[in-house]
Amino acid sequence: MSTDTDDTDGNDPADEPSLPAHVAGSGALDRLVETARDYALASTAENTAKAYAADWAHFARWCRLRGTGPVPPSPELIGLYLADLAAPSDGSPRLSVATIERRLSGLSWNYAQRGMPLDRGNRHIATVLAGIRRKHARPPTQKEAILPHEILAMVATLPADLRGLRDRAILLIGFAGGLRRNEIVSLDMHRDDTLDSAGWIEIEDGGAVLTLNSKTGWREVEIGRGSSDRTCPVHALEQWLHFARIDFGPVFVRTSRDGQKALDTRLSDKHVARLIKATVLKSGIRSEIPEAERLALFSGHSLRAGLASSAEVDERFVQKHLGHASAEMTRRYQRRRDRFRVNLTRAAGL
Length: 350
Known about the structure:
Layout: H1 27-42, H2 46-65, H3 75-86, H4 97-113, H5 123-136, H6 148-155, H7 162-177, H8 181-185, E1 187-188, E2 199-204, E3 207-214, E4 217-224, H9 233-244, E5 253-255, E6 262-266, H10 269-283, H11 291-297, H12 301-310, H13 315-322, H14 327-333, H15 344-347
Parallel strand pairs: 1-2
Antiparallel strand pairs: 2-3, 3-4, 5-6
Helix pairs in contact: 2-4, 3-5, 6-7, 6-10, 7-9, 7-12, 12-14, 13-14
């Protein structure tokens, strides 16, 4: 095994696009190298890239403490690493199966960037991982779906100032669009308004059309108008844009401390998570459950799950709306919607 310590942040300059050694540099070629590097950075979502860098740093440190290095890839060593994550030798808490699998994905990605493909099917890796799954795997924990009457109760807790108009639009658009929290805050008024946008809006007579660049590529999300202004997500969006005087750039921005003036700074996706948890508490949803447990039940995904669970339409339309690559993924979001709708016990004659 190599004792080369390598870098620990997953950003070795040697991994970046560059000119072949036998090609002389020039202004035009150097600019193309910079452009290629920008595209390479954009190939992986920012949060994923950060996670993969952290995975590599953790593995590199683990190797150093054992007198070796992370390169070249050694299936035997990685198998031992996975075993130590599942049953730590230093007494620290073991990682979940999902986190261990994510760590392995991070290592695979980092090795690929170095031109050293990792064979995850190698028996030293595959058999250890299979044993970890068999012994420690648990059913996935899912966030609770926010249902229509609950989203209305949450919206009712918001103040009547500009900040309240914004947060009302966020909750209703997020619910009706089945949007991820980063999709909500990354919206711009128009195409190409800002560099950090991942989509834009078009408001029409029948509703709003959101064009989003999401995990599965570009997609359009149609949000129709509601049955009344009180519950209409498009009306809530129009009210926010009108009173905040937003006609360019980010749709959802910060407000002044008094909640009366819109600022230029785009909201963080963390605001959506905090908003959901705060309004869940204020509205008294699931009040029979201790507060800490209630907070743990809900997240940004609760909006997507709520729409998927509540919309009584063909599953294909829900799948398209949420941007899922498979119907199976859509069914995971439909919390208990179809339970016992088809009773095979009675159908069998019992």
